[in-house]
Request: fold
Amino acid sequence: MWQKFNLNNPTIDETVFGVYSDYESDANGFYTVTAGVAGANEMKELNSVKINSGNYLIFKDKGELPKAIIDAWEAVWDYFKVNSLYKRCFMTDFETYSDGDEVAIYIGIE
Reply:
């Protein structure tokens, strides 16, 4: 998905989003992943996805891709393995990619 998105949009100079939505159940079930930029729904040939309002925990990393996003996801999994203070809601989660080497994962919580 990301290779196709990057090939079709070689000059993107804004924050890129990866949105996880339509969760069947939890991280073990089916879900939809959409790559895009804010405001892209103005183009008729593109799909759009709404990021739900609510509370999100943010996990950040910086460095070469894909290592930075892999490390950030490992931090997410580690956090929820041992921490019961927050519970994931599995509505929408999203990643942001900005400044070339900065990533953030926003995890929706109840």
